[in-house]
Design goal:
This protein has 69 residues and is an alpha+beta fold. It contains 2 helices and 5 strands. The longest helix is centred in the C-terminal third of the chain and has 8 residues.
Length: 69
């Protein structure tokens, strides 16, 4: 799973590649809002202090797959 950050009011920030450059996509309620080239641009849409990184926890299936030869 790739990195992503979520915030209040349905905001989600996801890294992506556009025209060979990394951008931070801003989504709100599942709809794209903007492709931002910098964190400063993201801050125009959402307060950065309100964002939380989503960290996936390993599952038993992940453990089983890692044990396979």
């Amino acid at each position: 799973m790739e990195r992503r950050w979520v915030g209040p009011d349905g905001y989600e920030i996801v890294p992506a590649i556009r025209d060979g450059r990394q951008v931070l996509q801003v989504w709100r309620h599942g709809l794209p809002i903007a492709d931002c080239r910098s964190v400063e641009e993201v801050a125009r849409h959402v307060d950065l202090a309100d964002l939380c990184e989503v960290i996936p926890f390993p599952t038993r299936d992940d453990d089983r797959r890692a044990a396979l030869p």
